[in-house]
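Contributing new records

If you add data, match the layout below exactly. Sequence lines come first and carry their own label; structure lines follow with theirs. Keep one chain per record. Anything else will be rejected by the validation script.
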Amino acid sequence: MAGNEDLARLVNMVLLKQGGQLNIDQLQQDLTKNQGVQIANVQSLLIFLKKFPRNFVINTVGDGRKKVSDVRVISDIETCVEHCKKQGSCHSQNGECGRLHICKFFLLSGHCNFGPGCAFGHDFISRHNFNVFMSHMLDPGSIEAEYLRDLLCQNECRNATTMPDTCKFYNTSKTCSNKRCRSLHICRHFLEGTCKFGSDCRRNHSVEEPSFMDILEDYGFDVNRNPEVILEDLQNFYKNNTSTNIESSQPQPDDFSSDLDGEPPSAFPAVPVPWPRTKRSPPKTRTDEEKTEEGC
């Protein structure tokens, strides 16, 4: 059997090319017949995959007398916040900081208004990014960028650096005056499942505004899906990541048309988004006057 990390990267490549998930028997067959890897049996492969809990999720269910296992690929790779500040303050090299030095909009959607001249970079296989991908058991030299995008756009693979944030001003004040704001104008507590004002909330509880969809598209969301499904994706993420932005932004009762009492319900557990996801449509092209990239 190949070296542990090399084999893990190979398994990731096979899974991503097959939509991100395979039955364990299909995976072993592909590795043995198509990739030339000698694996004694399915049980040996399962034992191996369990050594990489940050890369593979194994779901085993009973099927009569036989248990059936599916293997799904995941990743917790992040983009570097320091690199993506306007000043570009991360000076690590060769993957030292452990995070990608790349424009997150190009990473997630394949589109950036600034094109090849983007200050944050569009190179998946720069020495730094190559080493970061490899440390996460992903070989960008053998996995197409679109497959990597499909992986990183899964809800359970997103994190604070690859998820659109909610607007602090919109949630703590009565409005946001920045016409070019690229944060979501939506009630943060509605996304977290803790908004106690319900239909009386004066902040947005919908994702259907065109400007809202534009932001989601920048982050690699398939905006052609049913808005309710998109909203469910956002809620599933924020209910499990309540500290990604603002610590305390629950508006006061006098900000609303109705003064309601009662404690907000506790946050619900996140529900993983199943593989494979619907193929995203090609991103629309907008001019720099229509959208200004704030940085990653």
